[in-house]
Amino acid sequence: MPRYKLDQSVVPLVDAVSSYVNENRLAFHMPGHMRGGIKPQPFDDIFNDSIFKFDLTEVDGLDYLHKAEGVIAKAQELAADAYGVRKTHFLINGTTVGVHAMMLSSVGQGEKIMLQRNSHRCTVGGLILGGIEPVYINPEFNSYFGEYTAIAPKTLKDALKRHPTTKALLLTTPNYFGLASDVQTLSSLAMINGVRVLVDEAHGAHFVFHPDMPMSAIRCDVDMVTHSAHKTLPTFTQSSFLHVITSRAITDRLRMNLTVLQSSSPSYLLMCMLDATRRFMAIHGQEALSQTIEMASWLRDEINKIEPLKCPGSEVVDNYTVTGFDKTKITIDVSRLGLSGWEVEKVLNKEYGVEIELSDSQNILLFLTVGSKWENIRKLPDILKDLIKQTGTKEKGEVLRLPEIPPLEMLPRKAFYSQSEWISLENTVGMVCADVICPYPPGIPVLIHGELITKDTVDYIKAISNSGAFVQGLVEGKLKVVK
Q: Which of 46, 98, 121, 242 has the fewest CB atoms within 10 Å, measured from its CB?
């Protein structure tokens, strides 16, 4: 593991907030609960006083996120040191706001950004906010996993030739299932063409803390990287990092965009958790992740003993489009059961009290993190065996694949602000979509604002909906289209 330049054992923001709370000053300021002076039921019984006392606003000595010069600045410097980057920004609106800030800081109105079709749906918000034109590229399909992975280098090279005015490339890696792409090769191709490289590494915040994890994008020649700390690290939902990697990043513009996009009343609970989580991972991360990997390896082996389930692992690395695999992700192929992945998720939830991360037509996905416990993991194989007794087995059905990327009839921003109407799905072929249509999770759009609705797209939406998928943007069998 790297030797840090700063003392990673300290938590300047947590210490400052704790010290302030202990002073017990008279409170005549926000927030309205007045440090727990009133705790609305039922939270008066659920939460103790501490969580309310830590929920502060920008009081004397606690710094200000949008002009950090004190303890928040120190906490962010420690995070940058832990990750080995030039600068780290705390995000309290989740990684979504980080993705938007990266996009708006790198691409101007009417300019082009290149991105994978399996980018998270939050990227569409960046397109709308910035009036940006998307150039989508189809990622490769991994038949072993039954999942879309990353862009092949040749595919990117050809796309850059077709779109020489592209200003930025947005990569999403690893995908939801832990399959990491060759960021360095892809970023090198972009840099040669003068294209900025942004990486949504939401699911890779833990990579730098263990040698058996895939190489993080922050170790590559890219401009900015976002990390969803709350996805894989022991922190609260909505707390994330945005890292500036190179001097090419437009830091002034980035700072202004973060000020515009993030709340002017940042949560000290979230920021303190980021400070504490950084400390934990810097000091204990490798040891904790080693135990998590041990749990995942045991579980993967046990699942692969259960016919007809399949739980892929590092064998999916092909050193072409997939160059790394996150061993803490457990993907279970259930395609030979009598149910789709979506249906298996529902059975696990309702009949066994098991809550998983997501499902698709043939897989279910389980997350293991440094917070996982052996007592829970050891229960799962028996649960799966019992489930199979109920469902039986069948021949593997056809894997549902995304249709071809539909033509972009107008910029997403224009479609977003156009008059629209709800039309029955069957009657929308040939119309322009006025919303994002995607199964969620994992949040990969089938249609976005401004794209032409094709018959193949309609057929795909019908198929995944009939298989039990929750499709955002499909309401009572209708889609929103531009009038």
A: 46
Domains of the chain in sequence order: 64-280 (3.40.640.10), 285-391 (3.90.1150.10), 412-482 (3.90.105.10)
- Burial class for 319, CB neighbours closer than 10 Å (0-12, 13-18, 19+): exposed
| Amino acid letter for position 212 | D
Task: Measure CA 466 to chain center.
Answer: 26
What does the alpha-carbon distance between residue 237 and residue 231 come to, in Å, rounded to a whole number? 8
- What one-letter code names the amino acid at 112? K
**Residue reference for tokens 């039986």:** 392
34 phi-psi bin (left φ>0, alpha ψ -120 to 50, beta other)? left
Distance, CA of 370 to CA of 283 (rounded, Å): 13
Give the closest residue to 133 by CA, choosing from 451, 457, 482. 451
- Between CA 432 and CA 447 the distance in angstroms is 10
Q: Which amino acid is at 447?
A: L
Q: Running DSSP on this structure, what letter comes out for residue 203?
A: G
Give the β-pairing of 141-142 and 168-172: unpaired
Residue 398 has pLDDT above 80, yes or no: no
Cβ contact 446:402 at 8 Å: yes
Spatial distance between the Cα atoms of 368 and 371, rounded to a whole number of angstroms: 8
Rounded CA gap, 233 and 378, in Å? 22
Give pLDDT tens digits for 293-336: 999 999 999 999 999 999 999 988 888 889 999 999 999 999 88
Contact 235, 227 (CB under 8 A): no
DSSP track, 93-127: SHHHHHHHHHHHHH--TT-EEEEETTS-THHHHHH
Please give the backbone phi and psi of residue 193, each rounded to the nearest 5 degrees, phi first: -95, 10
- pLDDT given at position 2: 59
Q: Distance between CA atoms of 479 and 463, rounded to whole angstroms?
A: 15
- 371-376: list long-range contacts, CB under 8 Å, 24+ apart: 371/234, 372/292, 372/295, 374/295
The radius of gyration computed from the CA coordinates of the chain, to the nearest angstrom, equals 23
For residues 316 and 325, the answer to whether their CB atoms sit within 8 Å is yes
Q: What are phi and psi of 277, to 5 degrees?
A: -65, -40
Tell me 454's DSSP state: P
| Out of 21-30, 40-49, 133-142, 361-370, least confident range | 40-49
Note the pLDDT of residue 360: 87
Three-class SS state of 332: strand
Helix (H, G, I), strand (E, B) or coil at 140: coil
First-to-final CA distance of the chain: 57
How large is the angle between the packed helices 71-83 and 12-23, nearest 10 degrees? 150
Q: How far apart are CA 16 and CA 257, in angstroms?
A: 27
Tell me the C-alpha distance between 300 and 311, whole Å. Answer: 6
